[in-house]
Amino acid sequence: MNDPRTTRIENYLNDTLPPEERLAFEAALSTDPELDAEVRLHRVARLAVNMQSLLERRERLQAQGRRLLRSRLWWWKMRDWAEDTFTRHNTEGFIQLQWGRIALASLSLLLLAFGTWWLLQVSQESEAPLAAQHPQELYQKHYKRLEINNTLGANEGDSYTRARQQYIQGHCAEAVRLLDKVLAEPTFESRPMALLLKGTCLLEMGQAADALQTLRQVTPIARGAYQEAAWYMALAHLQLGQRSQAAEQLQQIAAQPRHPYAAQAKALLGVK
Question: Which residues contact 233 (CB under 8 A, 6 or more apart)?
């Protein structure tokens, strides 16, 4: 908390004391040497603070002036250089532009701008994960098994239900065996999803070529399964080390704004 005596002195110096208190304070100053000395000390301290503030302001203005002078000098030097380079005085004292030098300078600037743009493009491409990292490393990083739930009320003895259960538990070999069984039935209705599950299982088992063949059988009629299959096909190409085929598949996905894997495809391609 502030000392009441100090607060009163500050109010006095700020001329914020009521008239009666000010008169009483000035009367005390004439009879109390200690108070008078303290007020003088406060005045000196205020003067020092104000002086320091003025000095700092002067230094800021001087620094600003130096910066402005340097920029002006740079501009004058550039103007003199441009005048010496692109103009000449004829025998009659008139100034003539040297169009050949102007054209050469313009061409140089265009080449420099194009070179800068090209370097930026190359830099962006080199930063793309698909170009910078090994395809199989990218596969390991991005592969994730589908998240599915068992159908409520489904027959536990049904091969497709048991296949889904095996898939959820990560038993891909058994899941593939059961899926092959149901896919062989002509009347089986959940073919797109079963093909998707089988394809991802084969992918997880390291059989990327067979996974591609299976995933390609998912038809666009089942939109959700078809979009999922497109993503896992890109991952299958990565597992096989087929960078260009993976890029082509990812470009197709990235070109569809509503595709559930569009953002991930763009990130792998290094595009926005």
Answer: 212, 215, 216, 249
Residue 152 pLDDT level (bands cut at 50, 70, 90):
very low
pLDDT digits (tens, 9 = 90+) for 36-90: 888 888 888 888 888 888 888 888 888 887 888 777 777 777 776 666 676 666 6
Name the CATH topology of 135-269.
1.25.40
The domain segmentation of the chain, as residue ranges, is 4-76, 90-127, 135-269
Q: Distance (Å, rounded) from C-alpha 74 to C-alpha 83?
A: 14
Cβ atoms of residues 236 and 211 within 8 Å? yes
Distance CA 35, CA 41 (A): 10
Q: Are residues 19 and 11 in contact, defined by beta-carbon separation less than 8 angstroms?
A: no
Q: Tell me the whole-structure pTM to 2 decimals.
A: 0.54
